[in-house]
Structure formats: C-alpha cells, structure tokens
Amino acid sequence: MQGDIWRTWFPGCLAGVSCTFSSTDAKAQIANMQEREAFWSIFRDRHGPPQDLSGSQKDFDDAWQEFQEQSQARGLLLTDEQAALANHRLSPHNLQNTQSNRGIEPVSNTKIAVIGGSGIYDIDGLQGAEWVSVDTPWGDPSDQILTGSLDGIDMAFLPRHGRGHVHSPTEVPYRANIDALKRLGVTDVISVSACGSFREAMAPGDFVIVDQFIDRTFARDKSFFGTGCVAHVSVAHPTCPRLSDACEMAAKSAGITIHRGGTYLAMEGPQFSTLAESKMYREQWGADVIGMTNMPEAKLAREAELCYASVAMVTDYDSWHPDHGEVDVTAIIATLTGNAEKGRALVKGLPALLGEDRTPCPHGCDRALEYAILTAPEKRDPVLLAKLDAIAGRIL
Q1: Active-site residue, selected from the candidate residues 143, 154, 215, 318
Q2: Is 4 a catalytic residue?
C-alpha cells in the first residue's frame, strides 16, 4: 500500500519501482501537478534516483521546507485551500475518492459500454435511460452517451457515428469517445460494427469475434500520449479474451451464427476497396473481415486500460467475390437491418455473463500502462498530464 501511495502522488515513483519512503504524511498531496513535480525534484536531488529511494520523516520534512522556501521565492504561495489539502492525512478512502474529485467515476463494479456502429443506435430494455453529455479534454464525443442499467448492471451506449450518422469513419472523435467512457467509470467496451467479409464461410448476417487487426488507417490521432509524456503499450493481443468469451456466449444464446477469431483489416475509407486491394487483403495478407472504425479505437482503449472486444457484423463480401461483385450500399443497408436486431439481442445477454462485481482482468487489460510511460518525471508536460487525468490517472 505504501508504494501505491507514493506512486499516486509522486511521478518519480515509476511503475514497478518499490518506493520505501516511510512517511504517510499527506503534505505530498499538493494540489497542482506542477507543484508535485517541483517537490519531487527537490526530494530526488536530496535522496537519489527512484530506484534508490528510501527516507525518513525528517528527509521528507527537509524537502518540504525547501519546497516552501523556493515557492515563496517564486511567489507561488499555496492558497489556504491548497495548504489544508497538503496537510490532510492520506487514507485508502481518500485515494479511492481521488478520481471522483477530478470528475472521474471511481471503478468498483462492472460498467459495460457499447460503441454502436452503422445500424446500432440504442440498447433495448435499458432502465433509467438518460442521454448525458460528457466533456473531455480531447473535444466532444460523437454524441451524448445513453446511460442506464440492464439486469442490474450499469450500461452506457455511444453511437460511434452520432445519431443520424453524421461522422465519417475518419472524422469520428475516437480519443474523445474513449476518454468519455473512461470518465463515466466504464470497465468493459464492446464494439459492434458493420464489416465486409473476405471468407466464404463468414457470410452476410454472420457475426465475427475479432481478435487481431491490421491497421491501414493514416488520417487519425492514434494515441493519447505524445511529446511531453511518451508511452508505449502492447497491442500484440488487442482484444480481451474474457470479454470476447462473453460476447461469444451471448451471441450463441441469441441464436446468432458466430465465428470466434478473425483478423480485421481497418481501412481509412470512406470509399470501399478496389478489387486489387480486396484480393491482396484476402489472399496475401490473410485478413478475414474489413471495416473502417475499429482502429484506432482498440489501441486507445488499451491505452485507457479498458477491456475491449470487437463484434463485427458481416454485411457483404467486399469486392473480391466473383459471384457478388462490388459492394452495394442498398444491399448493405438491407443486411444491416437484420444485423441490428441480432446485435441488440447479443448486448442484452452480456450483463448476466459479466456480473456486477468487477475483478482485475486476468489478461492485464486494466493494467496496460503499468510499465508503459517512459518520459522522465521532470520532463513531463503538465498540460498534457492534465489532459490524461482520466486515461492515466491511476499511474500519474
């Protein structure tokens, strides 16, 4: 617990490094991120790099005194409110409420989010349904988010393209969408989207539980991190097997023809593939389905430490199939109507399978940032850190 406390309030206590500082004095709870960085810099200069960190109450008090003196010299006196906060003793209760104080819902129970693609614009049977607006530092989400409960489990629904289908695949605000869901306390994200098929067996009307991606998008912001706070997360296995299991079982219970496992080729769009591209993706690259929206969505969900599963609803055979020819929007819309009903039936089965009590993801999705942030604490950009409050607040 002690290491967790210091890692929460001192960016210098990097993930995976044991911080053995003995004080539990909450003077460390300086309200301003820049002030925390300044205090940590002083403490580190006095007592060595993080891996060598150990100290006493006197070590802490000496660094605190120097910090106050430097703040006074720079005219950065703490306000009465900040001073009271700095002298407030840390406790597990206070740590648990840190996210709520920043406008982020604390996570203790399962909360399922469905990001609906073409044809999926709501959730059947949602109790206490309410459309809510969520502000994010990455701009507005695609639309308001429909919240409520289903069989006693909190749910959230976000129409990826907005109600009325107003956002093209390139223009979907992917970062704002994921941030908004994280800010609402979502634990599990299920993407439901239309796709084309490269496999005869994956016929229009079938669903595919995607487990891999080939990202061919090029005009989208693909990370929350960047200059001033660099992070590298693994997306070797970009979907959550536990969540995918639940989607598969819900689909089977709803009588949907489901295919477990498949590689999703994410294209930029909005145009469909050429015949040459379609054949290449199918024959040389080994892709199974093609769509325009799961990337960078899946990558951003991983950075946000959210479990993510992708349910691809097949509407057509792209343009490779000799008996079906080019993609026809009219035919796609007809198939979408039937797929949407199936998609809503799948979603209705998820609460019972996932349950109310939230336990750590056995595959580590909810700990993806544990060793990911590389930028030295003193080099981190406070403006970017402030934007990352929901996404990386557990680590930062």
Answers
A1: 318
A2: no
